[in-house]
Amino acid sequence: MNEMYNMGLSLHSWSAVAILVMIFVNLFFLISSQELARYKRVNSLYLTPLTMTILGSLLFTGIVMMAAKHLHFSIENIAMIFLGVVLIVLETKRLKALKYLSTKKEHAFNAYKPFARTILQAEFILVLLMSLWMWFL
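Above: the chain's sequence. Below: its structure in token form.
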């Protein structure tokens, strides 16, 4: 039982690192991108599916770890559940704004960039703080 729990904890930690990397890659690609059509294409084909898959693995391993602890709710577990919901809501807002962004308007992408950058930076900071709390406390 301890081996399973340790393996699940390790997978959960690596999923947290992977989601940090994906948020950083999303942020880097947003900042370096100049064309809205290319950004939308890469985002819909590669970045969003990878990010959501990794977020799903993070949430799944968290649920498995809670089940292994017999659904014992601690402050850390409640904070992680809350963070998972916040991440889903923030990503949905960012992707919905990108979906309705017109490629025909000249400065639409420049207006979208600060909004998306703020969301991605908030996600990165939240996941980093939660990860540091999980790893060091």
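Residues 38 and 100 are 15 Å apart (CA to CA).
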